[in-house]
Amino acid sequence: MPPPPPMVVYEEQARPTYTRMARRHLSLETLRIHNIDFVLDQDPEYVLIKRWVPEPEQDVLWRHTRVIREQRNSKLVLAIEDKKHHHHHLEPEFEWVRKKERRKSRSRSPAPALLTYLAGGRPA
Description:
single chain, mainly alpha, 3 helices, 3 strands, 36% helix
């Protein structure tokens, strides 16, 4: 029995696999916390993750981003509410006031009466 022919294996060059995700759904902070290697896409609305991200992991990342953003927004609302109710009773309060310009009192121009007289009408 003759020996089997040698197998020739052509290896395809491994092309890097990236996952492109919208930044409106994914926070860069989430990627840093999970130690995920990424670069910003040419379109600033997207981020390129330097590997394939399976759907269950995408869901985890999106959920984490949502939690971070909700916490950030609640802190922002609290900060704004605190500023509204915060008063310094010992410090004077100032307001910007614009001084009104005085308008010159309007005196009737003699021209309309003169025009009426010249037109043949009676002046009022």
